[in-house]
Amino acid sequence: MKRILVIEDDVSLREFMIKYFLEKEGYHVITAENGEVGVEKAKQDLPDLIICDIMMPKMNGYEVIQALHQHPPTASIPFIFLTAMSDRANIRDGMNLGADDFLTKPFVSQELISAVGKRLEKKQHAESRADKRIRDFQSKITSVLPHEFRTPLSTILSASNILLDEYATIPKDELREMVSYINISGKRLNRLIENYLLYVSLENLQDTTELRAERTSCSQELIQESAINQAKKHSRADDLVWKSALDGSMPSVSISESFLNKIIEELVDNCCKFSNEGTPINVEIITTDRSLELVFEDQGLGMSKDQIAEIGVFMQFNREVREQQGGGFGLTLVKRILELHGGTFKISSIPGTSTTVKIDIPLG
Q1: CA 334, CA 266: separation in Å to the nearest integer?
Q2: For 93-102, 207-216, 225-234, 251-260, which range has the lowest pLDDT when averaged over its residues?
């Protein structure tokens, strides 16, 4: 039985109209005679939906929704305002504070029941999508992550066992090669763990205030250095083609240097993985009055519209053609970092021909 909290100072409206009609529809109704009592009952009972009058003594409806949004357990509860005011500005104020709907008094019972039903249905859909995301994430963890961990770990263990057993007889050139295998596999494993931990921390982040306060004095040299360092890991530094006509000086951007480097690292890494050595990787830097735009284009496998729509953590494409390394974190991390900083991410692709990723980072 869905629980609905009704916060209304008019006892006849609260008890003999709203409560009566909702209980008749099978809802469990909790009532509060003013905003202060309503906030306490919301925190205590965690209802599925809140119906709240705007004009009340002690604590008005705007103050109620603000108080509940500052309390994480109640912040996402659907909220319907009751108001006798038809002024559009007041409605807009409520929506800006996070209200999901409005009912203008006087209203008929069917309007009340319809509004409640739609809000609860929308909440149910959101919860179903969230549950599906959790199930998909759990499924991908069990199917993808073990392989991504075992592959480099097997190389490390196999090579180190040979070194321990036969180190005295192994030629120096073979010894160096085996140590190189161990080093490369160790770096691959370390990057996978770091990306996984970063993804989890970003997904759990609630307050982005400090994040968006970060500033980086950006320059073309900083971007180029980050891109070149990543391309060198794939022996592709010579494939980078710079399509910018900048003098090297740029305004600061609203992102930390470490996150900016992470974005560039993942996008260049993605270009290198999905295109052949010797094909160009075009990088363009554009500054506008409001943002820094970076465009990365490779001439490789490309992606279909369905694959672009399915981009997510642990999602790997064309593994039978080209083995990816990293668990499919790259583009997902880039999207999430940009979202948290108020930036944008856009990807377009022609299967078998090219992929272009355009990002937009607000200026500081």
Answers
A1: 7
A2: 93-102
Q: What are the C-alpha distances in Å from 292 to residues 263, 282, 285, 343? A: 13, 17, 7, 9
Residues 199, 215 within the same domain: no
pLDDT in tens, 131-141: 776 676 666 66
* Residues 158 and 127 grouped into a single domain: no
For residues 48 and 113, membership in a common domain is answered with: yes
Residue 47 lies in a domain: yes
Structural domain includes residue 342: yes
Q: Is the pLDDT of residue 288 over 90?
A: no
Q: State whether residue 91 is helix, strand or coil.
A: helix
Contact 100, 78 (CB under 8 A): yes
Helices 257-273, 220-232: axis angle to 10 degrees equals 40
pLDDT digits (tens, 9 = 90+) for 35-62: 999 999 999 999 999 999 988 888 998 9
Residues 341 and 215 in one domain: yes
Q: Counting runs of H as helices and runs of E as strands, what totals does the chain give?
A: 13, 10
In a domain, 137, yes or no: no
Alpha carbon distance 243, 48 (integer Å)? 53
| Domain with 190 in it | 144-203
Query: In which region does residue 303 sit, left (phi positive, over 0), alpha (psi from -120 to 50) or beta (all else)?
Result: beta
Tokens of 286: 């554009």
Mean pLDDT of all residues in the chain? Answer: 85
Note whether 238 and 189 are same-domain residues.
no
pLDDT higher than threshold 60 for residue 326:
no
On whether both 86 and 227 belong to a single domain, the answer is no
Number of domains in the chain: 3
The model carries a pTM of 0.59
From CA 59, how far away is CA 36, in angstroms rounded?
6
Residues 87 and 121 in one domain: yes
